[in-house]
Amino acid sequence: MIILESTRRIHGVMESKEIEMIRGPLLFVKVSSGVAFDEVVEVELQDGEKRRGRVLDVSKNLAVIQIFEGTTGIGSLGTTVRFLGETFEVGVSEDMLGRIFDGLGNPIDGGPMVIATEKRDINGDPLNPASRAYPKDFIQTGVSAIDVMNTLVRGQKLPIFSGGGLPHNMLAAQIARQAVVRGEEEEFAVVFAAVGIKYDDFLFFKRFFEESGAKNKVAMFVNLANEPAMIRLITPRVALTLAEYLAYEKDMHILAIITDMTNYAEALREISAAREEIPGRQGYPGYMYSDFASIYERAGRAIGKKGSITQMPILSMPNDDITHPIPDLTGYITEGQIVLDRGLFNKGIYPPINVLMSLSRLMKEGIGPDKTREDHGDVYNQLYAAYSRAQELRSLATIIGEESLSSTDKLYLRFAESFERTFINQSPTENRSIEQSLDLAWSILSILPESELTNIRTELINKYYKKGMEAEPK
């Protein structure tokens, strides 16, 4: 093949006009040495249209480029590829709160352009493990099943495992609206990244934040399902770049919510297939674990910094399979998971959180007398033990019949029904304080005889146990 124009750097920019191949969203370009991985690229078409991309791989004299807007309309002749000698950066500012952006950080809400305080690499600045502070401060979401049973702490990464048709979007919006760091509400903000969502879902989030009054503390980054897969890989990184700036430069406590990581993983698989890489489990690339980690590990607290980033990535499990590579790898990286249950959803319970399958590994660091309340740990242990026994008794009752159970066993069944209908179930607009959630838990535990509360200290039973009171299911 004849090289139409040699490639060389002029003022940091290298040009090439030799398109070797176009495959899906990827552009294979002949270059000389000096092209770097992750370098930003500008592609100018024959009609003058310009598109952006980044270098995905460099092998000898061939560069593989991701085109953010897709390769449709790009021809092998008359196209100029410019390697700009820099990585992808996005402008960040406090003024981005209350605004809506596309996946590349451009405003799409009709407002003015944001004047950036500074530009930052979307890949972030990795925290030295030795400089990380241990997550320990309680974040109140207003959702009882999370606050009491799967406590979220500042600097934690706690994903939500959902399934098709389950209300993870509603739960994500509710948490974004209600979440507060107790005593420091004025320093709290939400960075919300919607990855590969439908336009209807975008309108839902937009209206929800506007009508709930939470819009001014939320920065939204939206990548729609009909947009190129490339942008899905960029969107969460752009959002987390703003989160890092607000947390570590402006001393804010940031809750970063990313939905849906399954769409992100599908885009990763699509790009991997276009590159003809050897597939891993179920066709996903073998490096998906490290790629996920490059996103999840951007949560945390840094020694000497007042701010923090707490992450709640949301993913829909294909076929409700928790062993699928996406939730499986996510579980290895993050500090627990909140699992939504289709059985509870079919009962009309919202949020349908399966507390027995859910876990917050850092929960013990965020509860106690100075953070939530003195009885929190004991109440959690008792609720978990009682509900677990009730589930076993439900299975037994389907075999031998409920009339064959003892009177105490029947109380456990009543407890389970009340726990689901009264404690787990709450309105999407209901914002419960941790004190309200714990008081409600004690009311439900009062269905059981005092002798059954073996996981609670005597002095706490004497103080909080509501003798003679029972919480009837709604």
UniProtKB/TrEMBL annotation:
Keywords: ATP synthesis, Cell membrane, Hydrogen ion transport, Ion transport, Membrane, Transport. Residues 366-465 form the ATP synthase A/B type C-terminal domain. GO terms for molecular function: ATP binding; proton-transporting ATP synthase activity, rotational mechanism; proton-transporting ATPase activity, rotational mechanism. Residues 21-85 form the ATPase F1/V1/A1 complex alpha/beta subunit N-terminal domain. It holds the Pfam family ATP-synt_ab_N. GO terms for cellular component: plasma membrane. GO terms for biological process: proton motive force-driven plasma membrane ATP synthesis. It is a peripheral membrane protein. CDD domains: ATP-synt_V_A-type_beta_C, ATP-synt_V_A-type_beta_N, V_A-ATPase_B. Residues 142-360 form the ATPase F1/V1/A1 complex alpha/beta subunit nucleotide-binding domain. Its main location: membrane. It is found in: Cell membrane. Belongs to the ATPase alpha/beta chains family. Has multiple subunits with at least A(3), B(3), C, D, E, F, H, I and proteolipid K(x). Component of the A-type ATP synthase that produces ATP from ADP in the presence of a proton gradient across the membrane. The B chain is a regulatory subunit. This is A-type ATP synthase subunit B.
